Amino acid sequence: MKVVVCVKQVAALGDEVEFTDDERDVDPDFLDYALNEWDTYATEEALRLTEASGGEVVVVSVGPEDVEDCMRRCLAMGADRGIRVESDEKLDPIQVARALVEVVQGESPDLVFTGVQSADAVQAATGTALAELLDLPRVAVVTKIELGDGKATVSRELEGGLVDIVEVDTPALLTIQTGINEPRYATLRAIKQAEEKEIDVRQPGDLGEPAYRVRKMFVPPKGEGAEMLNGSAADVAQRIKEIVEDKKT
Amino acid sequence: MARDPKYDILFEPIQLGPKTMKNRFYQIPHCNGFGSEKPMSQAYFRAMKAEGGYGACCTEYCSIHPESDDTHRVSARLWDDDDIKNLGLMCEMLHEHGALAAAELWYGGPHAPCMESRAVPRAPSQIPSDFEHLTYPKEMDKDDIREVQGFYVEAAKRAREAGFDIVYVYGSHSYLPQQFLTPYYNKRTDEYGGSLENRARFWRETIEQVKDAVGDDCAIAVRMSTDMFMGEAGTQLERDCLPFVELVDDIVDVWDINVSGISEWGEDATPSRWYPSGRLLPWQKAVKDVSKKPVLGVGRFTNPDLMVEAINGGSLDIIATCRPSISDPFLPLKIDEGRLDDIRECIGCNICISRWEIGGPPLICTQNATAGEEYRRGWHPEKFDPATNADNDVLVVGAGPAGMECAMVLGKRGMRRVHLVEAADDMGGIMRWIPQLPGLGEWARVVNYRKIQIDKLKNVEFIPNTELDPEGVKSYGAEIVIIATGGYWSTDGLNGATHDTIPGADASKPNILTPEQIMRDGKEVPGNRVVIIDNDGYFMGVSLAEKLAMEGKQVTIMTHLGHHAPYMHFTLEAPNMHRRLHQLKVEMVTYQIPTQIGNGGLTSVHAYDEEHATEWEADAVVLVTQRRSNEALYRELKDKVGIDALQSEGITGFYRIGDCEAPRLVADCVFSGHRLAREIDSDDPETPLPFKRERAVIEREAVLTA
Predict the structure, then answer these.
(1) In percent, how much of chain B has pLDDT > 70?
(2) A126, B321, B457, B577: which one has the fewest Cβ atoms less than 10 Å from its Cβ?
């Protein structure tokens, strides 16, 4: 059984933020990078399934050489192979899906996993776009997977603690929710071994036109609205009382 | 990051007499164990706070004359020209960072037992000290008064020559000027006793004389206790303090405001167990309301919002800190740079104070392992040299205080990868449950600070829910392995009193329990009557007594000593602890050695009379007898697996730190982890590098031929 897990290196804001000259993005000097939190859970789920029934976990990502750091975290957890599609550009979810489709198809996987969303762009669209391009059934926000014969019974997380149970034919693409499992940690040995592993690099095909363009990125201006109440708990409580009394009259 | 504008007031300069202080951060006079006779340690210690942004730093209490000799405790001294040279270094280093230097001129009277100088202290009336019970003063006549006032003047001149910008006429904590002011100490019937004007006379004259001598060059500070909480006999706010402030306000440049006397000065240097930050604000405000001069004072302030409120609310002009400056000398700078979550907050454990109380040792700090080590070991709290062997991966087993500190410092020293692996679901170890004892919530800051720092370190990964066995450690893939698996309370009653176990002591039984079984594991304390066997000497026994009594149990606590929790006298927590346990009707029993524990209770004999046995009924017996190291993992790796086998796995360094080496104070666990991390690239990291000792070294030839 083969599971392909699509992972992303996401950016996190540091303590200070400055923008690029064109004001359309954060200056990369002010960003920290890490593996997308959802992808850790997706990788763990893939490992559990293949450990139970035998098989292979292949980790795939799109980006410059830097993103291999994140891929190696997945390899350190136990993923077998990594494939990176080279790209230096900022891509929208559909372009990413286009970049991935050839590689994923080439693996003929039983299951394709993505995270529900990425922590930086938060579009929650790449998995669905990829499923469409692969012509695979897609279930989103998955919190439990039970494999059957040519199908899977899958739980989806809804609002208010409700769970939707769906039966889907495999191969299928599932977008994985955090909390589906408890991801394992990689020992230093595993991390070192993952460093040595070669990651297969492919060139992207035609990624097409972007579906949208960022016009401007900025920090929203601070409004006048909030009065900060400082001091000890007793002082703050007194001030709140005064404000409430004030508003009443 | 930038300073939050709401803290701007803390960075406004302020005039103190002829001097300008660059901001509102003031390191109050406090002891460090260095005095004038360890001048390098003294200067480096104080200068670190100036580097950290403090606008002024003070000496500890600074003796003006050999008659004020507090040996065995360590004060600074300004007795002669050599003292000027020694303390001059401190002034120079403070000035380099733009901070003012202050000397807290002190004459102790009978509280200073003069055990080195063998001089006789003088005092307003001849009553032995309520702090040093064997010391009697000479009762001062007018000549004595003139002479001692002259000591202040000469000392102030020496202070000026050393480079001090501020000189104190210090009375707080029941020292000489305050002794004159206070009926408890002053039974005089001449013009120096009786009415408030008379009782104030000595202090007022001394301030006048000091101001005459140095007031053009130095700011004159007066440190006063506003209320000794002793009723009519002690200094009282309305009757004595506020009128005194009004009387001398014109000639004082800055007020330093305390409460309490000396025998219970924990009411002033408040442990977090009993008081929150800012306890003194009402008294400080009372003084500020009647004074036209700047008012400063302490309150265990760690939170900049509270500091701003204290100033904006009219209680203080200047925020003084002692313990928060020890736990983080860089508090001002971190507020200035908007790095609030980098502030290493004081936990109010008073371990620092306990070292002065013991008499002799240099201070230590639970939160800041570098406190006191600035010169001795060259440690800087914010600077960490990259390790020369940084190209190594480190496994730290156990995320208690020692493990967290070690992993954090290794991370800051740039080790390639550090894995901090913990069996439980979160960091903290023993400091997860100790702060859950009554009153100790602020002690959790030990964990909070390190959690935040470790989270920021990209080369340190925290791995919970993972218990490593010897094979797991061996094959983990680290080049350096550090075992930090902590300790546990003895389950068989092994104790330092008898050096033996207690017959019948077996904490696997439901009616016999240890502290962590109760606090960490949730083991039920059966029934109603509890007997705690306490041979520990610090807080564990009495804290559990308090907790269980609060839960409605009938508690007896017994110790082999004549005193419960003697170390808590040094941390200033004891008086209120006794009040609290008395209020909770805890039965406190001394001089008892348990001889047999049964199902319904235990038997004990008197420590000095084996024939005198007592039977105690108990539904539950709690063993607080002694701690042991959790050294099983370390021992298996070293003895069974063997160093050779570890080396063939690529492990070039194998160490242990903290309680799993030997149980100790949390402050010492943090130190243990810190030291190993600082010295991880020495030739033999297991052996601490020698530290600098300030001492006279004799050149034999020179002495013999002289």
Answers:
(1) 100
(2) B457
Whether the pLDDT of residue B705 is over 80: the answer is: no
Helix residue spans in B428-494 (DSSP H)? 430-433, 445-456, 470-474
pLDDT band at B311 (very low <50, low <70, confident <90, very high): very high
Please tell me whether residue B412 adopts helix, strand or coil conformation.
helix
Phi-psi map region of B173: left, alpha, beta (phi>0 left; psi -120 to 50 alpha): left
Beta strands in chain A (DSSP E): 2-6, 9-13, 31-35, 56-63, 81-86, 111-115, 138-147, 151-157, 163-169, 172-176, 200-202
Classify residue B522 by burial, with Cβ atoms within 10 Å: 0-12, 13-18, 19+.
exposed
Q: What is the pLDDT of residues B338-349, one digit of tens each?
A: 999 999 999 999
A236: nearest CA partner in chain B? B309
**DSSP state for residue B285 in the 8-state scheme:** H
- B458 min Cα distance to partner chain A (Å): 10
Lowest mean pLDDT of A24-33, B248-257, B296-305, name the range: A24-33
pLDDT reading at A214 higher than 80: yes
The CATH number of the domain holding residue B526 is 3.50.50.60
**Is the residue at B697 inside a domain?**
no
Label the pairing between strands B627-629 and B487-489.
Answer: antiparallel
CB contact under 8 A, B463 and A188: no
Whether B129 and B178 map to the same domain: the answer is yes
Q: How many domains does chain B have?
A: 3
CB contact under 8 Å between A188 and B305, yes or no, is no
Tell me the sheet residues that pair with A5: A59, A113
pLDDT, position B703: 75
* pLDDT level of residue A212 (50, 70, 90 thresholds): confident
CATH number at residue B663: 3.40.50.720
> For residue A113, what are the β-bridge partners?
A5, A174
Nearest Cβ partner of A188 from B278, B393, B466?
B393
- The answer to whether the Cβ–Cβ distance between A188 and B1 falls below 8 Å is no
Tell me which residue in B313, B417, B463 faces A185 most closely, judged by beta carbons: B463
Contact at 8 Å (CB) between B660 and B631?
yes
Place of tokens 């000489």: B176
Nearest-angstrom CA–CA distance, B44 and B64: 23
Instruction: Please report whether residue B336 resides in a domain.
Output: yes
List the domain boundaries for chain A. 2-202
Whether B294 maps to a domain, the answer reads yes
B440 and B523 belong to one structural domain: no
Confidence at B706, pLDDT banded by 50, 70, 90 = low
Tell me the torsion sign for CA atoms B658, B659, B661, B662: positive
User: Rg of the Cα trace of chain A?
Assistant: 22
In a domain, B684, yes or no: no
Are B193 and B85 in the same domain?
Answer: yes
Distances (CA, A) of A54 to A4, A74, B312, B492: 14, 18, 68, 50
The domain that holds B286 is classified in CATH as: 3.20.20.70
Q: Quick one: B271 and B399 in the same domain?
A: no
Q: Which of B306, B393, B458 minimises the CB distance to A231? A: B306
The confidence band for B63, taking pLDDT boundaries of 50, 70 and 90, is very high
- The predicted pLDDT at position B135 comes to 96
Parent domain of B254: 5-358
Contacts of B518 (CB under 8 A, 6+ apart): B525, B544, B622
CATH superfamily of A2-202: HUPs (3.40.50.620)
Give B271: exposed, middle or buried? Use CB within 10 Å, 0-12, 13-18, 19+.
Answer: buried
What are A88-120's pLDDT values in tens digits?
988 999 999 999 999 999 999 999 999 999 999
The reply to whether B58 and B132 lie within a common domain is: yes
* CB B328 within 8 Å of CB B381: yes
- Percent of chain A predicted with pLDDT > 90: 80
Query: What pLDDT, in 10s, does the model give residues B132-146?
Result: 999 999 999 999 999
